[in-house]
Amino acid sequence: MIEPALLFGDRYELGPVIGRGGMAEVRSARDTRLDRLVAVKLLRPEMAHQPGVRDRFESEARLAARLNHPNVVAVFDSGEEDGVPYIGMERLPGRTLQDRMAGGPMDPAEVRVMAVQVLGALQAAHEAGVLHRDVKPGNILAAPGARWKVGDFGIAKA
After folding, report:
1. What is the DSSP string of the chain?
2. DSSP 23
């Protein structure tokens, strides 16, 4: 297990876990080279030995890094430390569309803004030859300034 505040990948001070999925966890981190908060997605060590999982994780980093759009979570870096592959990416506040929907009905104007932004992100992905394949409320993250971003390209295909 990786301890908090450990320097990881020669640059990241890892903080608490902010998200978990089937094959990885996401930690808040500080990029010591650029002195900024980021998120670091770490493939769970037991998953790295399953056929195809490591390749899928590395593919996620490459495909998401192709995209440069204001409504796609930015990928900054990827690598491996002590056999643990990781992806360094933009750190967002942590609230998802799923969280927002759980809070009750959304105003139609808010839904329109979110839909336009998400569809813009998906259009940019498709134009770059990337098919997300897992668009769901939990993979749409709230960003500052009433913006929404598409994340988690874990099962995306080129």
Report:
1. -PPTT-EETTTEEEEEEEEE-SSEEEEEEEETTTTEEEEEEEE-GGGTTSTTHHHHHHHHHHHHHT---TTBPPEEEEEEETTEEEEEEE-----BHHHHHHTSPPPHHHHHHHHHHHHHHHHHHHHTT-B-----GGGEEEETTTEEEE---TT-B-
2. S
pLDDT digits (tens, 9 = 90+) for 11-43: 999 999 998 888 899 999 999 999 999 999 999
Query: Active-site residue among 82, 107, 134, 152?
Result: 134
Give yes or no for a contact between 148 and 140, defined as CB atoms under 8 angstroms apart.
yes
Rounded to the nearest angstrom, the gap between the alpha carbon of residue 65 and the centroid of all alpha carbons in its chain is 11
Helix (H, G, I), strand (E, B) or coil at 89: strand
CB atoms within 10 A of CB 152: 22
C-beta atoms surrounding 46 within 10 Å: 9
Active site residue 82: no
Give every CB contact of residue 8 below 8 A, 6+ residues apart in sequence. 2, 14, 29, 40, 81, 86
Give, as one character, the DSSP assignment of residue 107: P
Residue-wise pLDDT for 118-148, tens only, equals 999 999 999 999 999 999 999 999 999 999 9
